[in-house]
Design brief:
The chain is of the alpha/beta class. The chain has one domain: Ribonuclease Z/Hydroxyacylglutathione hydrolase-like (Metallo-beta-lactamase, Chain A, 4-Layer Sandwich). It is built from 10 helices and 13 strands. The protein has helices at 16-19, 26-30, 74-81, 84-89, 100-106, 124-127, 143-151, 153-158, 228-232, 243-257; strands spanning 2-13, 40-51, 54-58, 91-93, 116-118, 138-142, 169-172, 184-186, 193-197, 206-211, 217-222, 262-267, 277-279. The strands form 2 sheets. Strands 1, 2, 3, 4, 5, 6, 7 and 13 form an 8-stranded mixed beta sheet that branches. A 5-stranded mixed beta sheet has the order 8-9-10-11-12, with helices on one face. Bound molecules: zinc ion. The site of zinc ion has 6 residues, from helix 6.
Length: 280
C-alpha cells in the first residue's frame, strides 16, 4: 500500500468554521461576513493510493478553472462555485501545478489509469476537481450523501450538481457494518479499502480505511475532524448537519487513532500535515 498525500491548494474560511464548537451560530461560522484578511487558510488534501487491486484517488480538490492563474480570482471562483454565497463561505486558491490532474500527470498517472475515484462527500473543495477525471473507471460517492442532497433544501444550496456535470457518478450502498453508525462499504470485498460512514459534517460523509496485509491501517478521516485536536479534544466544527452525530463520529475516530495497528489518521484540512507518502 502506498498513500500519497497531495495538497490541492488552500481554502480560506471563517476561523469559527473548523473549530467553532457546539454553540457557535451557523451564520458566523459560515464566514459569509468574514473579510479576506480575517480568514483562516487551510490546506486541501487529496489522496492517491496504490493498492494490489489498482489505483485509487480519494477526493479531487479544487479545479484549475477556479484559479486560472494560480492565484485568488474572485470572478472565476464565483463562476466555479455557481452561487455568490458559496463563494463567500469557501475562498479558494489553487497554485499552478497543484490541481489533482496536474499532480497525477506529473507522476505519470492519467485519469483513465484510475480504477476508482472515491468521493468522501460532495462539498466543493472535495469534488470540484472531479470533472477532470470523468475518464476514470469507477467514480463513486455514498448513496446516502447524494440522496440527502436531493431530498434536502439546505443540501441543494450547499452542494451543486454542476460540480459533477458530465461525470458518471455512481453511488454505493452499504455492504458492511463498520464505523460509528454501523454503515460501511468494502470497495474490493477483502477489507483492504473500506468507506466508512462518519456522519455529522454531512450525512453521507465517509472516512476511508486502508489496511495492509499485516493488519496495520491508515484512516483517512476526511472532514470527520479538521485537525488531530478535533478528535483528541472532541471539538466539533462550526458548520455541521448534526453535532450529536459529529461527536459520535469523532469518538470513533479517536478510538481508531488509539488502536496499536493505526499508522496514521489524516484529516483533509489539517495545517499540521504536509504532503508526503506513507508506504506500508
Ligand atoms: Zn472540506
Amino acid at each position: 500500500m502506498k498513500i500519497h498525500i497531495l495538497q490541492t491548494g488552500t481554502v480560506g474560511v471563517s476561523p469559527l468554521l473548523p473549530f467553532g464548537g457546539d454553540n457557535v451560530s451557523t451564520a458566523k461560522a459560515s464566514g459569509i461576513f468574514t473579510r479576506k484578511k480575517d480568514r483562516l487558510w487551510l490546506p486541501v488534501f487529496i489522496y492517491y493510493i496504490e493498492t494490489p487491486h489498482g489505483k485509487l484517488l480519494v477526493d479531487t480538490g479544487w479545479r484549475r478553472e477556479m484559479s486560472p492563474k494560480g492565484v485568488f480570482d474572485r470572478k472565476a471562483q464565483i463562476k466555479e462555485l455557481v452561487t455568490p454565497m458559496l463563494y463567500r463561505i469557501n475562498y479558494g486558491v489553487l497554485p499552478l501545478g497543484q490541481a489533482a490532474d496536474e499532480q497525477l500527470a506529473e507522476m505519470g498517472v492519467r485519469p483513465e489509469d484510475l480504477d476508482h475515484v472515491l468521493i468522501s462527500h460532495l462539498d466543493c473543495d472535495h469534488v470540484c476537481g472531479l470533472r477532470a477525471f470523468k475518464n476514470a473507471k469507477n467514480i463513486m460517492v455514498s448513496k446516502k450523501d447524494l440522496d440527502h442532497i436531493r431530498a434536502n433544501r439546505t443540501g441543494r444550496v450547499r452542494f451543486r450538481p454542476e460540480w459533477w456535470e458530465g461525470v458518471d457518478l455512481k453511488t454505493f450502498d452499504w455492504n458492511g457494518t463498520e464505523g460509528p453508525v454501523g454503515c460501511s462499504y468494502d470497495v474490493f470485498g477483502d477489507g483492504s479499502v473500506v468507506m466508512i460512514n462518519i456522519p455529522g459534517h454531512s450525512a453521507g460523509l465517509c472516512a476511508i480505511k486502508v489496511t495492509g496485509e499485516d493488519g496495520r491501517f491508515v484512516l483517512i478521516a476526511t472532514d470527520g475532524g479538521y485537525a488531530r485536536k478535533s478528535w483528541e479534544q472532541m471539538i466539533t466544527s462550526g458548520i455541521s448537519e448534526d453535532k450529536e452525530l459529529q461527536r459520535k463520529s469523532l469518538a470513533w475516530i479517536r478510538e481508531q487513532s488509539e488502536n496499536p495497528d493505526c499508522i496514521a489518521v489524516l484529516a483533509s484540512h489539517d495545517t499540521e500535515v504536509t504532503p508526503h507518502t506513507i508506504e506500508f
